[in-house]
Structure formats: structure tokens, C-alpha cells
Amino acid sequence: MKNIIILINLSIIIGITTIFTQSEEIVSENKDKVSANTLTAENVSAVASGLKKTIRSNFSRFTSNTKTKSSADETITAFITDLTEARIMDIEQGKTAEQRCTTRPLKEYGSLMIKDQAKMLNELKKLAARKNISIPSELGPEKAEALGDLRKVHGQSFDKKFIKMMIIDHKRDAKKLERAARSDDADIQVFATKYLPVVQSHLDKIKALKKSL
After folding, report:
1. CA-based torsion, 127, 131, 136, 142: positive or negative
2. CATH for 74-212, among 3.30.460.10, 1.20.1260.10, 2.170.130.10, 3.50.50.60?
3. Contact status, residue 167 vs residue 207, Cβ threshold 8 Å
4. Mind listing the pLDDT tens digit for each residue in 49-59?
5. pTM here?
6. Could you please report the per-residue DSSP string of 169-199?
7. Mean pLDDT over residues 17-46, rounded?
8. Could you give the residue ranges of the DSSP H alpha helices within 101-154?
9. pLDDT digits (tens, 9 = 90+) for 73-90
């Protein structure tokens, strides 16, 4: 009888031990599953966050590059457009100088303007076509008014006004060409490098003529 009781007690102890062991295994398994699920969620969140950062970074670079390119295009367009109108102005001033100037050197300078500025204008037209830029074929209101004012005066007053306008115009164009000679655009750089000495020589010549008056 005593042995039977002992056996029963042992069976109960073994049963209880088995139950606790299985429970621990189940808890451990569930814990691992939860941990795995949590880790997966964390990984997904990390990947999503990384993707967002990459997208924002790429978009920022794309936007920055687009703005830079747009700005560069606007600068090139303005350069070609402004210089084209200035060449038209110089040619018209040269024609007027041939007719109105009172000295031969100034008349010859007017002829020089017509010849050299026409060459420069043709180059600008080719450059504009290559860049698909629309350029003016006539003077705008401001320059047209300035040309009209020049044509209203005669004699030595004309000579002085013509010289003053030429000096102002050439100084302005020389500065633009100096900046353009450092352009990242190869076509603009080549054009500016070629014609900066031409404009500078015109400026030097008209300054010398001013001293001779």
C-alpha cells in the first residue's frame, strides 16, 4: 500500500513537471515569434525610413540641378539677347556717324562699327540658332529712344554725343564679355573670348579720338 502511494505521488510530480516544462516551451516559442515579428516590423520601418530619406535627397538634388540649369539657361539667353540688340544699336550709330560726324576719323570709326559689329551680329545669330534662342531683329523702346536723341543733334554736338554713347556702350559690352569668357558654356566662352578684344579695341580707339577733338 505504501508503495502504491509512493508511485501515485511520483506520477503526480512527473505530470506537474511535464506541464510546467511544456508551458515554458510554449512561452519561449511565442516569445521568439513576438520578437521575430517585432524585429521584422522594425526592419520594415527602418527600410521605409531609409527610402524616404533617399527619395527626399534625390528629389532635392534633382530640384537643385533643375534650378541651376534653368538659371544658366536664363543667363545665356539674356547674354545673347542683350548683345544682339547692342550690335543692332552700334550698327545704326555707325551709319548715323558716317553721315553726321564732322571729322574724317569719326566717320571712319562709324564705318568700322558697321563692319565689325555686323560680323559680331552674324555670329550671335548663329549662336542663338544653335541654342534655340529667339533674338530681337530691331531695337527695343529704350535704345530706339536713345538713337532718336542722337539723331536730333548736329555738328560738334553730335560728335561729342556719339563719342560719349560709344564709350558707355563699349564699356558695358566689355564687362559682359569678360564675365561670359568665364562661362561654363563652351559656346559662350569661345564667343566671348573671340570678341572681347574686338570690343576693347573699339573702346580704346574711341577714347583716343575723344582726346584728339
Report:
1. negative
2. 1.20.1260.10
3. yes
4. 655 555 455 54
5. 0.67
6. HHHHHHHHHHHHTT-SSHHHHHHHHHHHHHH
7. 48
8. 104-131, 141-150
9. 898 999 999 999 999 999
